[in-house]
Design goal:
Length: about 160
C-alpha cells in the first residue's frame, strides 16, 4: 500500500477527479484502493502522527511538512528510474517498456485525458503481472478540441 500525502488541496482534488471521472483501466494505471479510511480520518492521523507516522517524520522527514490530503493506492515496488539504474535493461526489454508506456498514454488520450507529468518516477511496475502503470495524476488535464470552451483540470482554457 502507498499513501500519497499532498499539501495542496487543488492538486488532490484534481487527482481524485481524474481517477473518479475517467474510468481508467487498471492495466495502465495504479488504481486507488477501496475501503480505506475517510479523508477526515487520514487528515486527523497525519495531524496527530498516529500509526508510527510521528516517528518516521522525526527520523527521516526533517523540515518536510506532510500533506493532509491522501490518495491510497496499491504499491508499485519499483519505478522506471530504479528499473533502468538497477536492472539495466537490454534493447529488447527497453522496447517492451516503451510499448507499455505508449499504450498507457494512448489509453489516457482515448479518454481525452493528458497526464501532464510523465517521467520515470511516475511509471511503476506492479508485481501482479510485472506490467508498467502510470501514477500521479495531480497535473492531469482534460483534452478539449481546439477552440473548445471547456476548462481543463489544470485551469487553462
Amino acid at each position: 500500500v502507498v499513501i500519497k500525502l499532498m499539501q495542496k488541496k487543488v492538486q488532490w482534488e484534481r487527482e481524485r477527479k481524474t481517477r473518479n471521472d475517467f474510468d481508467l483501466d487498471p492495466k495502465y494505471v495504479v488504481l486507488t484502493l477501496p475501503n480505506v479510511p475517510s479523508d477526515t480520518e487520514i487528515a486527523d492521523a497525519v495531524k496527530e502522527g498516529r500509526g508510527g507516522l510521528k516517528a518516521i517524520e522525526e527520523e527521516f522527514l526533517n523540515d518536510i511538512v506532510l500533506g493532509k490530503y491522501a490518495i491510497v493506492m496499491g504499491l508499485g515496488p519499483r519505478n522506471l528510474l530504479q528499473i533502468f539504474y538497477q536492472e539495466q535493461p537490454k534493447n529488447d526489454a527497453v522496447r517492451e517498456i516503451l510499448r507499455q508506456v505508449f499504450e498507457a498514454v494512448k489509453h489516457l488520450h482515448e479518454k481525452n485525458l493528458m497526464h501532464g507529468d510523465i517521467k520515470m518516477l511516475n511509471i511503476v511496475r506492479l508485481g501482479i503481472d510485472n506490467g508498467l502503470r502510470l501514477i500521479d495524476f495531480d497535473a492531469s488535464a482534460r483534452i478539449v478540441p481546439q477552440g473548445g470552451e471547456e476548462e481543463s483540470f489544470a485551469g487553462a482554457k
